[in-house]
Structure formats: C-alpha cells, structure tokens
Amino acid sequence: MKMGMEFWKQHVAAAKLQGALTSDYAKQHGISVTALYYWQRKLKAPSGVRAPSPPLGKFVALRVVPAVVEAPPACSCTLVLAPGMRLELTQLPAPQWLAALGRAAQEAR
C-alpha cells in the first residue's frame, strides 16, 4: 500500500498532538518508525531544503590532563652565630625571631 504525503501529514500532526515518543506512536498505529521520523523531518523543512541535523547534546567530550604541581623551591637559611655555632633552618624565620636570636647570641658572648 502506497502511503502519500497526506497520510504522513496526518500521522505527524497526530503524533505531535499526542505528545508521546515517536517510536511509541508508530508502534501503536502499526506504521514504520523510520518512515515516521523521515516524514517528520521532511514536513518541517521548506521544500527543496534539507532538514538540519539535530542539535548536539548538552554533553561535551572533555580531556582532563593532570595538573603538574611543582613543589616550591626549597628554601633554607643558615645562620652562623659564632665560630662553631651554626643554625640551619628549612625556611626563613620571622624578622622578630631573628632579632631576638641576635640579642640572645650577643648576651651569650
């Protein structure tokens, strides 16, 4: 049985009104799902113009590259207070601490 444009116009309109999935509508009415999709696209597009491809999904492929975290450069502080008296620190101390250390070292002499 040849099904013309009027046949498909009616089914496309009815499927849209029903609001069900196109595949469910086609199964309920015993018509080809593929043909119904075809006619939906064909009837939406102006004659002679190909129907646009469906919009892309909301998901986008993303490539995640692990971040390279570099350790901060090692900072060290070596204080030579007197011959034979050496203090090595892994990081710079607060200026107030250095001042207090200097005063204590002078008093110890």
Number of helices: 4
Q: How many beta-strand elements?
A: 2
Please state the overall shape, judged from the principal axes of the Cα atoms. rod-shaped
Q: For the CA atoms, what is the radius of gyration?
A: 40 Å
Question: Brief description of this entry?
Answer:
The chain has helices at residues 5-18, 22-29, 33-44, 95-108; strands at 77-82, 85-89.
What does the model show?
Among the domains are: 5-44; 77-108, no CATH class. 44% of the residues lie in helices and 10% in strands. It has 4 helices and 2 strands; from the N terminus they run H-H-H-E-E-H. Helix 1 (5-18) packs across helix 3 (33-44). It is rod-shaped. The termini are far apart.
Which key features would you list for this structure?
rod-shaped; two-stranded antiparallel sheet; mainly alpha; 2 strands; 44% helix; 4 helices; 109 residues
Layout of helices and strands:
Blueprint: H1 5-18, H2 22-29, H3 33-44, E1 77-82, E2 85-89, H4 95-108
Antiparallel strand pairs: 1-2
Helix pairs in contact: 1-3
